[in-house]
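Appendix B. One record, verbatim.
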Amino acid sequence: MKRWTVSRGNEAAAKRINSSTDLGPLLSEIMAARGLDTLEKLADFFNGSELSDPFLLLDMQNAVDEINSKVDSGELICIYGDYDCDGITATAVLYSFLESMGANVSYYIPERADGYGLNADAVRKIAEQGAGLIITVDNGISAIDEARLIAELGMSLVITDHHQPTEILPEAAAVVDPHRPGCPSPFKHLCGAGVVLKLCAALDGGSFDAVCEQYLDLVAIATVADVVPLIGENRVIVSQGLRLLRNTENVGLLALLEECGADLSKITSTSLAFTVAPRINASSRFGSPKTALDMLLSEDSSAAEYARELDRLNTCRRTAEAEVYGEIMSMIDSKPSLLFGRTLTVSGNGWHRGVIGIVAAKLVEQYGKPAIVISSDGSGLSCGSARSIEGFNIFNCFNSCRDILVKYGGHELAGGLTVKDEDIPALIEKIEDHARSVCPEMPRMTLKADKLLTAADMTVDNVASLTRVEPCGQSNPEPLFAISGAEIKAVYPLKAGEHTKIEIEYGGARATALLFRVKTRDFGLGVNSKIDLMANMSVNEYKGIKSITLRVQDYRPHGAKQDRYFAAVDAYESFRRKEPLPADILKRGNPTRDELVSVYKYITAQNAPINLENLCISLAPNGFNAFKLRIIADAFCDAGLLRYTPSAGLIEPAAPTKRVDIDSCATLTELRSLIQGGDNNA
């Protein structure tokens, strides 16, 4: 279960905005709640239409001078890209632009197996090809040794990057990175392709007119794919880029969009993130990034072949992702203690390294804990990918384990590592030790609603106004609403029960709510039940009739006391980790005979498996805390009377094979022994 918070709002500012603009009451409340509480701030958000002078980027003039000199001399210029969507599109933009200038230009993109950034072998190959200049895109800011090698081989180097620099910069003719200390450029959150766009504008005398018309569609894709904040100049890039994308002349993009089945008239930042970006990224995960780059540079019918190949590779990615995820679910079911840790770390053999980061993100989403997925290829070394949540810095965690790591890197919410196979158990222990020391109480994944929705808010006009917040993404999320105490009027399966649709009534208003990836058999709530939701809203039109549809991000039975729930779950997991707990907390988890019987009868009376989290919330008003209910569930599972599926969080009756004494089961014996020991010590 995720933690929910609701913005406090700013009623006075919302009223001022509503009376002074055409945003409408609901969008006015959202803007005010997000701190856009004056007309000036709103104007900057909605009407910002300019990119700052490219020459404000430190070293830009030096970059332009160096590149122009090589163009004029006819020396070979090699663009050194990166294998992700940002790096591939940035390479395509700069290659196309330099070619249009008449430059003698080539490109080099490392394969994913070669690792990120400049490497010495590639530099030597580029030198052998006769290059006089290497321009990095989306990499290079930390390539100290490689930059020195480039100089030794007689080539010059221009770095364009958007990652954080170290204290020492590489030796180069120019280092263009908005994060450089002292860089006067006002916007710091560009992706790699965004920096390249500014380089192209600078090479064109400082004007954005031609380069934006030609390349903004590609840069918009990169900006969305790299999950940089969609505010300020990035909002300009994506909003204008989407407009150009709807009429793009890039043959490769058109082929890919057709292969995706995308409706160009309705394409959004969200649809880009789920259609185009994964297919471009799949080229390096399951093939070569050159396939995606060749598609973007194609000017003939070969583009369709490249697009089909990217779609095939993306299917391979989904298949591999499902296989790895399925193996991890089986591991969790066979070893439930994996879920008791402060973090969730799993390792396996032969898991495709191109998907372990995606799987780690899914685990964080499902279990609300930092997740590290480690894969061994049989070489003696394993690679891991991690995703975290706000409040637990995964890079700092890896840094605390540096004595047994071969290599590591990352930032607060994501990272990667290399470790010897034999050190994996020690690594898992060190990760848990670090989490225990820095977060005695682990942070929770949190959903923040812009507003507690009322029935009066749920009008077609109000909901239609929300599209004006687009493009949505990092730092400018799609509006999210909390709904408290809606009544379920109907439950329907979708896609053979893989997804669920419910009809709700909320304060007299009716709406349809879609729960994607929630199996109908696992939903756990029936007609006439009260439900709380966190959901986005949109307007749906069918046969000329408009209605409101909710896309549910999280749900729970109505009335959950989340702080009490989380405290009880923390106590249960501490008990399972065999950490000391105060006697009074242990006693709160100790069920009476009557409580054991009543919970067992409740579960066996259901016609389907019960979600254990929902059970804990539903029975809380009857005096059951989550610690006690988890103990009860474990006790009956020990006895063979119930069956629990940890990966799905579902519990259901089981056919007992023999008569049992529930009080003698392992879980209750252990708990009561600890209580007795604490009482004796007292």
